[in-house]
Amino acid sequence: QVQLQQSGPGLVKPAQTLSLTCAISGDSVSSNSATWNWIRQSPSRGLEWLGRTYYRSKWYNDYAVFVKSRIRINPDTSTNQLSLQLSSVTPEDTAVYYCARDFRGSGGSGPPNFDSWGQGTLVTVSS
Amino acid sequence: QTVVTQEPSLTVSPGGTVTLTCASSTGAVTSGYYPNWFQQKPGQAPRALIYSTSTKHSWTPARFSGSLLGGKAALTLSGVQPEDEAEYYCLLGYSSAQWVFGGGTKLTVL
């Protein structure tokens, strides 16, 4: 059973960098059968997919167009975690942030399936 | 900018049937968008219900089903229970490796 445990500060100042970590248990960040995603939710913008990282013989990243210039998602194989960094934040980035697994089946070729989610972290951008 | 549209709110009586839909601003939703459906209750993370249009998770109650209907993805609840009152979200995948959520449907069981 996969569990995703998020951690990170709940308050970030404007123009600074938001940093969150997602610790994975029950699966590997290097799995060929999953992608690892960050998603956020706010009352004004709803649920938004931010981006993902995944390993298929090498590491890949995809980012949502609207944050592409400010976002980095990195895997840490030594600790089996993934991280999110969002730079130059504004109050519009205030949201609950989730990490989530997209599982592609044991063979890695199944359909996208966002089956496991972290508990969510409320991040407020304010001075 | 791609927009995914859901009904903002629906009301259903206990034991009744209701269908929620998910439309894409780019045109008809097909199986190639790999629709996912989620249920979210207040204060909780979204919980996966359906993936790849109609495939249920092991924990998904049998009364939930997914389909394509009139160019949209659809989630049907048959024999609605009071505990089904929640917000429901669809998620569509686009070929540019972008995922877009719908705005959500608030389902009231009354």
Could you explain the architecture of this structure?
The complex is a heterodimer of chains A (about 130) and B (about 110). Chain A is mostly beta strands. Chain A has strands at about 5, 10, 20-25, 35-40, 45-55, 60-65, 70-75, 80-85, 95-105, 115, 120-125. In chain A, about 0% of the residues lie in helices and about 55% in strands. In chain A, strands 2, 4, 5, 6, 9, 10 and 11 form a seven-stranded mixed beta sheet that branches. Chain A has a four-stranded antiparallel beta sheet with strand order 1-3-8-7, with no helix packed on it. In chain A, a hairpin with a 4-residue loop joins strand 7 and strand 8. Chain A is elongated, with a radius of gyration of 14 Å. The N and C termini of chain A lie far apart (about 40 Å). In chain B, the strands form two sheets. In chain B, strands 2, 4, 5, 6, 9, 10 and 11 form a seven-stranded mixed beta sheet that branches. With about 110 residues, chain B is mainly β. In chain B, a hairpin with a 6-residue loop joins strand 4 (about 35-40) and strand 5 (about 45-50). Chain B contains no helices and eleven strands. The interface of A and B includes residues 64 and 112 of A.
Question: Secondary-structure blueprint of this entry?
Answer:
The complex is a heterodimer of chains A (127) and B (110).
Chain A: E1 3-7, E2 11-12, E3 18-25, E4 34-42, E5 46-55, E6 59-63, E7 71-76, E8 81-86, E9 95-103, E10 116-117, E11 121-125
Chain B: E1 4-6, E2 9-12, E3 17-24, E4 36-40, E5 47-51, E6 55-56, E7 64-69, E8 72-78, E9 86-94, E10 98-101, E11 105-109
Parallel strand pairs in B: 2-11
Antiparallel strand pairs in B: 1-3, 3-8, 4-5, 4-9, 5-6, 7-8, 9-10, 9-11
Number of helices of chain A: 0
What is the straight-line distance between the termini of chain B? 36 Å
Largest beta-sheet characterization of chain A: 7 strands, mixed
Question: pLDDT average of chain B, as an integer?
Answer: 97
Low-confidence stretches of chain A: none
Shape assignment of chain B: globular
Q: What structural class is derived from the secondary structure elements of chain B? A: mainly beta
Main structural class of chain A: mainly beta
